[in-house]
Amino acid sequence: MQILLRQAKIIDSSSPFNGQTKDILITDGIISSIEDKIDHQDAQVVAGEDLLVSGGWVDPFSHFCDPGIEYKETLETGANAAAAGGYTRVFSMPNTEPVVDNKSQVSYVVQQSACLPVSIHPIGAITKKLEGKDLAEMYDMKNSGAVAFSDGLVPVQTAGLFLKALQYVKAFDGVLIQIPIDKSIGAGGLINEGIISTQLGLPGIPAISEETIIKRDIDLARYTGSKLHITGVSTKTSIDLIAQAKQEGLQISCSVTPYHLYFADEDLVSYDTNLKLNPPLRTVSDRAALREAVENGLVDCIATHHLPQNWDNKICEFEYAKSGMIGLQTAFAVVNTVLPNLSNEKIIKLFSENARNIFDLPTTHVSVGSKAELTLFSRTAETLLTAGNNQSKSANSPFLEKNLTGKAVGIVHKGKLFKQ
Q: What CATH number did the domain enclosing 147 receive?
């Protein structure tokens, strides 16, 4: 099978063609030729104005609900949504039924996703059944294909247990992923604690519930010298704490979600349940701090926190709605819309290169002889998510029918072209 990318600008700092616009021929999954012009009659052709090509994108935190919660999402529908969003690799959370807390469950995800357009890397649970009591068999899961370890949507609350987990994974250079939520602070909260929560009469989740956990986990990572990735960072103080830890030389990395860059708690005046999230949307000044941290390189990755919810869990009173939104298909367009001046090089670091380095994934290069794992995208084309083109099983997105600037055109992965 041959694929021809016509006049694509190459965005890859490791490629000898970085910044150049070329024709790229891919033969049987390998980049066989990069020239000013290639004529080939039998190849599948991808062309378009402002077509850019980079190494394949990586999402380090998504929920595919499989096994056990397939009415919200499956590995297949999740992979299709990821491919439509320009991703070639996605990390799947362990919050399934049963929990991904042993090598059998890790193997299930790996095997079931082998023929899907996107490589799905299971995140193994830190604790058995996500109960926060006993450590899961992380070493066995690592050997079976777990890319990192996290209790996902129910982050580890006990400092002593999280310390043991950090010490455990250090033996094989593993990475722990933690959403910074102290569930004992603002336990009944629905949105960010502040002026907006007071005006709307909704119980709040204070910023300190996030910042307390980040302080604790940084202290524990300092003590153990282990690798920690903090995802879903939402406040200015959190960003400042992570910046200090990085300056100290700790092995701390972080990611933010596209929706924390786009929305603030002021957007909740309409009581849109699609904006009920955890960590919640914070203040306008917090959002500005997150955007600045992305621009200056402090934030390592964009993590979609793709969290499908069925109709019943969103079309209800705000109090009873479940948290989360889908985000794989709109992630790039959202970031490109709110940060249009972000350089192509920074975009690729955020969406691909940094995650590959942090989690020790295979590198990918736009050069002759390299395996073709590529994302094709445009920064000027528009994305419009609709009920018709939504690839997810769920539709809990505030971006439905909303025009965004920037589009993932397709991916080349596993020897095939997947194009929107």
A: 3.20.20.140
